[in-house]
Amino acid sequence: MAAALEAILAGLLVPDNDVIQENTGKLKEAFKDPGALPALCHLLGASENPQVRQLAAVLIRRKVQKSKQWNALENDVRQGIRDNILQLLLREPERGVRTSIASLVGTAAKHDLPNNAWPQLFEFLLTYTKSADTAQCELGMFLLYTVAQMATEQLKPHLMSLLQLLIEKLNDTQNHLVPYYAIRTMSELVFFAGDAEGKLLQGIVPQVMAIIQQLTTVDEEKASEALELFDELLETEVAIIVPHLKPFMQFCLQVASNTEFGDELRVKAMSFIASLTRLKKKAVIKSHLVEPILHVLIPIMSSEEEEEDEEPEPEAESHTPPQYALQVLDILALHLAPGNFIPKVMPMVEKCLSSEKATERRAGYLAMAVVVEGCADYVMNKLMGAMLQSVCRGLNDSESMVRNAALFALGQFSEHLQPNITKYSSELLPLLFQYLGKATQEADKNPRGLTKSYYALEMFIENLGQEIMPYLPDLMNHLLTVLKTSPAVRPRELAISAIGAAATAACEGMKPYFQEIIGHFRGYLVSATEEDTKKLQVAAIDTLGVLARNIGKETFMPLATECVQLGLGLLENADDPDLRRCVYGLFAALSGLVKEDLNPYMEKIIHYLLLSLKSTEGVTAHYKEETEPVAIFNEEALQDEEDIQDSDGEDSDALKLEGISVENAYLEEKEDACCALGELAQHTSTAFLPYLEKVYTEVLELVEYPAVGIKKAAIATLGQLCFCVHETCSKNPSGDAENALKAMLCTVVPKYLEIAKEDQDRTVVMAAVDSLHELLERLGLAVLQVTNTTDAILQGMKDIFTHKVACQDQEEDEDEQQAEYDGMLIESAGDVLPIMARLMGGEAFSPFFASFLTDLLKRLKQTSSTAEKSFAVGTLAEVIESIGHTTILFVDTLYPVFVRMVKEEDDEVRSNAVFALGMLAANGGDKMKAHHADILKQLLEMLNGEENLRVIDNMCAAICRMIWTNAANLPLEYIVPAVIQCLPLKEDFEENTTVFTCLLQLYQDNNPQVMSNLEKLLQVVATILGTPQAKPDTQKLLVQFVQNVKDKYPEKYGSIKGGMPGEMASKLDHCLTIDINTIPTTNGCHKGGCC
């Protein structure tokens, strides 16, 4: 049989599909013969064709890869395989065949090691790994590495003795492959290392680095592979590296900066720099490594001569050293305190910008672009004007690559430096329009310039709000002209996206352009056969969703049904994840308009969304093993019925899974499908209930999904599903709905707390904390009563404040400056405190607040960042508001702090401090009344010189709060006119309720200062009514006041009204027709100056 089988195998190696198919059928028949396996074993040792020998080894391994297959063999057959393959390994001259035989040894070892059925294997390994013959030692180490790959878990009982052997082999200087295989074997075993093994490994880190450095001079590829040991240590036992962090980082910097090395090795070295900065930033700072890292990264970024086809997005996977250096810089900005990082990086950036080399100038602008996300507050407070001037100079650079980088920087600034950058709209928008026109004309010469121009424009305009209106006609004229006249697809695609950004800002201001926009879109929406027209279709549907959210219900509703039907029609045959994603976004947007009227289409919509949640499209599994360079036929065709039935989950794959990758488009589709389900649940209420259980089950599973974006979407959607059931209970109370909500809360709230404690990604933890906050805000005390998690929530927030959760650097000193992203997580936890205080009540919450006070006060030091100060004083103010008169317990601690903080230079900090001081004055009882005169004196002195309108508004409110609580002891004749003089409020409209509640109470008491200022007050009322200032609570107060003045003082009312302009007088008269009981009341707590 062996001869016939050899002929079949030789046929399988012929590069002809017909021949391969014919011999595959023959092999399948041959495998039905019990003698097939012995024949393969014979060929493995006897065939003169090395490819046949290798294929025989592969097929033998396939036949015994599962434990049941191996154990089903006769004992003498198993023993024959054991005895022969070790001898065949020794005499095999071809490296590829040896590799396949070694894999077969590893497969057999995986089955035999647990019951010690192959003691000869360990004898063989010990003999050859300890051999004085360098070739034999190399073979022994190679086999040990292969066995460790295939049978990692089975070697666990021998871990300590194996590590001792491997450490001994690191000293081999005769053959560089011996220590190489020792390091590779360690990489396989390190996952199982305990404390004792960790100490062993920690001691040999310098030696491993030296070996890898030596390998870089003889075999760069093997050096890169050996570095995987540090990959494994970073994943499992980073503490092993920490004592050697500085020399290891220096080694990585040397490798990264060496242009003689290939991209793979240099990028891998930089990946360690990024990971250690993320995981152990304190050690990086204390080792004085930030500047050396920057001195390596910036030149690498400057070395790229040609631009890539795509933008260098910091989040994207990068494979060239210049691209990856940009990612590392982004990570430094996200994880290091801006006060330590920016002063080190900016001098290097400025040097680049003044260089005569275009690549260096380009690198300078790219560096500016990526640092702003992590250091936004610092840049806004200290550098924004200067950085914008630099970018504007870059837009006029003679080299297109530099101009494009400057545009990218401007786009990043526009995205991350909100809202401060909008103050420069009058200077920047004309410049952007000018550049867009130029880039449109030069699109053929500089296509990236066009893309970058639109990117910068979109990022800037979508955050402008109504400030876009003066520029909207010119902008829309340009965009609509592009849609009418451009023959190329890319300009139209960019223009469609920019229309969406304009709609986000202008909202109903887009109405004059709506019909023309829809006219253009109709040509793209229905049929798209070519790849290019599909891009226009996706862009048009995306922008259609934006218009549905922003242009107003009255304008878009006539198209709503048509849009739903269009989306469902497109999904019937959609094989493009981008198309599905944007249709889901459209459905989510439409649900906000049509609400429960979406019910007739819900079943189909939910069906498609769930398909995307469950889909495994775009998923690719990557395996560590099976690299035999043999032309392998379709092996699935050889699986006999016994093998198929044997798939019971045990050893179902002989290959070792290294990882799974998913194409970005499919990840985005899954994420947007999850978000759409959350919006549908929230907007369609009872119409969603029939699908709730299925959706909830699928979304709950997605919380464990490895992709960060999907995980965050699932976290938010779980909360929205709870809101859906809660709203249903409110409208139509039922026992089933209440029980469902209780069960959901008892799962969701602990899940949020678990994520906050254990997840490694800060943004995921922030999503969990923010969703928990929203649950508490909207569902109230029921969340705590049903889940019994009051203590767990408080402890969870405390752990975040004290850097005890997994995503934080556990060694970080709380007194040190922190990265802004770390601060954002702490701010999310801080937002939970006031709502917990309100739900628990002052007495129950105050013991916890007392323990928390120190953590907040630490952030009010002179050396603290502006963001820390603003957050801490704002949180303290909101907690005081929530705990009410229990505040008296904390007056002695907080009063001197707030008095100091109202003198802060930063407007936001000062505004929050004034708000906090007012809250303390109102809730601090007699202790605070003793300070009222001093507070008034300080506020009135500040009022005379204060220029910030929000601070002035907060001063008025603080004075009014003191009048509430202590009117009899305050000089009302001075302070009431001072307050009235500052009306109407200019920025903090939330405080209108505070101010007018106070003034109208004084009016009821016939306060002479109020009575003598009735004309001024009625003018203020007429100014406020009909504007965004008139929140429901404020409107109710103002209408009541106007009606009362008219009833009590009709002549005076008539006289005052007669002296007003017609529009203002009409507003007053309209108040007389309003039934105040029909005015809704605002729900939720008032956050005053801290919003």
From TrEMBL:
PROSITE patterns: HEAT_REPEAT (PS50077), IMPORTIN_B_NT (PS50166). Gene3D superfamilies: Leucine-rich Repeat Variant. GO terms for biological process: protein import into nucleus. Keywords: Cytoplasm, Nucleus, Protein transport, Repeat, Transport. HEAT repeats lie at residues 894-932. Residues 23-91 form the Importin N-terminal domain. InterPro entries: ARM-like, ARM-type_fold, HEAT, HEAT_type_2, Importin-beta_N, Importin_beta, TOG, TPR_IPO4/5. The keyword Repeat applies. SMART domains: IBN_N (SM00913), TOG (SM01349). Coiled coil: none annotated. GO terms for cellular component: cytoplasm; nucleus. It is found in: Cytoplasm; Nucleus. This is Importin N-terminal domain-containing protein. It comes from Littorina saxatilis. The lineage of its organism: Eukaryota, Metazoa, Spiralia, Lophotrochozoa, Mollusca.
